[in-house]
Structure formats: structure tokens, C-alpha cells
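Researcher: We're teaching a course module on how sequence relates to structure. For the next exercise, students receive a sequence and then see the predicted structure as C-alpha cells, so they can try to spot secondary structure elements on their own. Here is the exercise chain.
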Amino acid sequence: MIFVAASPARAIDAVSVRGDAPAIDLTAVLDHQRSDSDRIQVSTAPGTDGIVRRIEVRAREGGQYWVVFALANNTDDQLDRLIVAPHYRIVSSGLLWPDLGLSRIATITPSTGDRPERQESPTADVFRITLDPGAVITFVAELRTDKLPQLYLWEPDAYKDKVNSFTLYQGIVIGISGLLALVLTILFVVKGSIMFPAAAALAWAVLVYIGVDFGFWAKVLDMSNNAERIWRAAGEAILAATLLVFLFAYLNLSRWHVRYSHITVGWLAFLGSLVALALFDPAVASGIARISLVLIAFAGFALIVYLSTHGFDRAVLLIPTWFLL
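Model: And here is the predicted structure for the students to work with:
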């Protein structure tokens, strides 16, 4: 980092950090910038002397995407905080060419003081910073991608409690999903009806997908970020395929018209090809799988309503469940 010169140029506003605030969402105050080289010059937030300075930061990984933000400690105490950028958020991840999750931040450079220390975390980029009393520090983060869905400033103990509570919640959800998949598999072995293998396959697909979403398989199988993106895309394609099979089996569509069988087989073959596509381009495969899920949800609902009006009891019973989609 190099101080270029004092300057009256437009500076960013510093976010005041209170000692009693467990978390602050910095996403809305980030200043996104792009450089044509491996260097960037930015204006700092005004310091305690009111002077706006210009600093130059050099990329450590050759990145061209940056975010700039400033933090101010207006208390009389030294504050330790964690800057946290999650690798993946399903909310706002997109439908076409979705963001499947990556490491977001390469490094963070402060306008004064030492570089923040990176903390070990499989699901987020976490950096530890220390704010001295009265300090106003501008941070320049070098991004590994052009997107930064979320950035939070956490109090360390509050973040630890949040991670622990989510771990408990995720364990409960995975346990219930695994038990349900096992019970449905046993029912399939005992009963042998076509509806049970379809339901069991859907349950196993849900278990695989939430295991990927919660980072469970990444811990068990020691997967890289790229491998996790492939698993997520393949899981979405398998989830769409098993949902289609469940709809076909539960409504016994083959007895209504042979055309339903042809459509289902063709759709399944298409979704199966997405699993192979996920190995080469996970984002495209995931986008197509998500579109298929939407189409299955709407087409399935229309089909359920149609069969319900013709007195098919199974279709009537499926309406409340389908609304959950």
C-alpha cells in the first residue's frame, strides 16, 4: 500500500462501529470498483483530522475487482471484529447462470495498521481486525470474483454463537432427512409399490442437496470449492429428476395417457445429461436444472388441478404439499 497524496476528492463514509452491536451488515455501503491493472487508487474516509487521503493498493493475486469500505471506532475501547464474506447464498444466487459459491476475498488492505488476519473457515472468508479507540480505517478488499453477495462485520463471540447454532440446526435437518430417506427405502423394500422408490429417491436427493448446501459433504469428503460447485449443480439436476419421477409415480400418469410416459422419459434423459454437463460447466447445468424445477412445479400444479377436477383423489391430496414448492 502506498499513500499517494492528500486530496479533497470525494471520500467514502465511515460506518460507526458500536461496542454493543453484535453484527453490522456492510453490503449496502460497499463501494465496488474495477481496475484495468493490478493496482488501484482510492480515497480514504476522512480521519480524525478531517483530511481525505489517496492510497494505492497492489493486488496480490492479480485481481481487478475491489470493494472499499471504512470503519470508525467512536468508543473509548479497543474493538476486535470479524469481517465475514459467505462463499454461497442461495438467496439472490440467480436463476440463469447462478452463482454457485466461491471464495470471495483474496486479501484486505487497511489504510493504516497491519493487514487483517485470515481465519480458518470452510464456508466463508473471515478476517480478524482490531479497531483502536477513535480510529477511522479504510479497507480495500481484493476480490476473486466480480460478485460479493454479502459482507458482515461480526463481534467474534456473537459469530461463534451463530456458527454453533447453525451447526445444531443443520445437524437436526440432516438427521431428519436421512431418517426419512431410510424409512422410505425400507417401505420400498417391504411394499414394492412404484410410489415408494420414487418417494425414497426424492428423499435421498433432498438429503444429498442439503448436505452440499450445509457444507456437510465438503467436510466429510474434503471437497474443494470447485468440486462443491459441481456437486451443487449435479444435486439440483438430480433433485429435479426425482421430483419428476415422484410426480409421475404418485399420480400414476401412465394410466391416463401414454404421452405422459414419453414426456417423462424424455425429460429424465435431458436432466440426466445435466449431471454430465455439471462436470464441465456447473453454472450452466445448475441454471437449466433450476428452470426445470420451476417448470415441473408449475406444470405439476396445473396437472394436479386438472386431475383433481376429474375426481382423482391422489391429486387432491397432493395439492397442499405442492403449495410448499
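Model: If you want an answer key for the exercise: Helices lie at 156-191, 195-213, 216-221, 225-250, 258-278, 282-309, 313-323. Confidence is low (pLDDT under 50) at residues 2-9.
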